């Protein structure tokens, strides 16, 4: 991935029978490749990953990898509540073509810092040949990833972290705690991408980029090129789009926007959500 990477938090389209629509997924990834993104992350929060069966996650990763065809990275989200399940899914997705894996902080049960770090060390050891990223979203998991823990993960050989804490203060703390290691901190909140880049972030993992990859690609390129006002305009538009698409049921807005964007490219994209979301 590039110095300021745009990773798409990839949606999962569902066909009429309720299963992932692999044709639509393939077309979506192909469209994103041509839009200039650096990577896609299937089966995360935006991809309704917790609602997908293990076999479905593997199939989505395989489809994304086939569509990407080595032109961009596929970073599979494999996080499960248990360590063994996370490792098993990591093995399977790497076998399906993922060039890296990401795992959300273990959820539901309270996990202390030492056990959380051991969870990621076990994952790192299980798939030593690909980059491993942590993913923190405490509003969903109930468990915090402290800056000190992030520093330990960097020492343990993890490649980076997706930060969805929605706290710029915490984001800077992650950057400071890991700055002595080749550790990439990625902003997971669309409204804070430019501020994160200014602080030293390695890029973003964006939901908005499913439908508007042009905005995130334009933002990062303008930032890297020193075009401050252009980057600020892109960030303002990203924030406005995010606020608009966040109204209503979870993920419904971003799926509708993606369907409209792909329709303009001649591709049908279903907007169904997996129950209980829709």
Descriptive labels:
278 residues; alpha/beta; globular; TIM Barrel
Mean pLDDT: 97
Could you say which overall geometry the principal axes of the C-alpha atoms support?
Answer: globular
Strand % is 5-15%
Question: What is the name of the CATH topology?
Answer: TIM Barrel
Main β-sheet description = 8 strands, parallel, barrel
* Radius of gyration from CA coordinates: 17 Å
Task: Give me the CATH superfamily.
Answer: Aldolase class I
Number of strand elements: 8
- Helices and strands: which structural class? alpha/beta
Query: Percent range for helical residues?
Result: 40-55%
Q: What's the CATH class, please?
A: Alpha Beta
Going by CATH, the architecture would be Alpha-Beta Barrel
- The spatial strand order of the largest sheet comes to 1-2-3-4-5-6-7-8
The run of helices and strands is EHEHEHEHEHHEHEHEHHH
Please indicate the count of domains: 1
């Amino acid at each position: 991935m590039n110095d300021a990477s745009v990773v798409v938090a990839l949606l999962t389209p569902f066909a009429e029978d309720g299963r992932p629509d692999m044709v639509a997924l393939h077309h979506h990834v192909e469209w994103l490749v041509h839009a200039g993104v650096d990577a896609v992350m299937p089966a995360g929060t935006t991809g309704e990953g917790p609602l997908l069966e293990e076999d479905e996650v593997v199939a989505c990763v395989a489809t994304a990898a086939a569509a990407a065809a080595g032109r961009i990275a596929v970073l599979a989200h494999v996080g499960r509540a248990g360590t063994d399940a996370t490792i098993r899914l990591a093995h399977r997705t790497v076998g399906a073509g993922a060039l890296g894996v990401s795992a959300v902080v273990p959820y539901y049960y309270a996990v202390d810092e030492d056990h959380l770090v051991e969870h990621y060390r076990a994952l790192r050891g299980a798939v030593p040949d690909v980059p491993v990223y942590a993913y923190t979203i405490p509003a969903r998991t109930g468990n915090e990833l402290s800056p000190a823990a992030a520093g330990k993960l960097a020492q343990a050989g993890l490649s980076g972290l997706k930060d969805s804490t929605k706290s710029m203060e915490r984001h800077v703390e992650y950057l400071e705690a890991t700055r002595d290691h080749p550790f990439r901190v990625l902003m997971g909140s669309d409204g804070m991408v430019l501020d994160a880049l200014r602080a030293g972030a390695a890029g973003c993992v964006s939901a908005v980029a499913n439908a508007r990859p042009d905005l995130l690609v334009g933002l990062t390129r303008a930032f890297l090129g020193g075009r401050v006002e252009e980057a600020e305009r892109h960030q303002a538009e990203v924030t406005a789009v995010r606020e608009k698409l966040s109204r209503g049921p979870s993920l419904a807005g971003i799926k509708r926007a993606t369907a409209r964007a792909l329709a303009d490219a001649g591709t049908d994209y279903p907007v169904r959500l997996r129950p209980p979301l829709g």
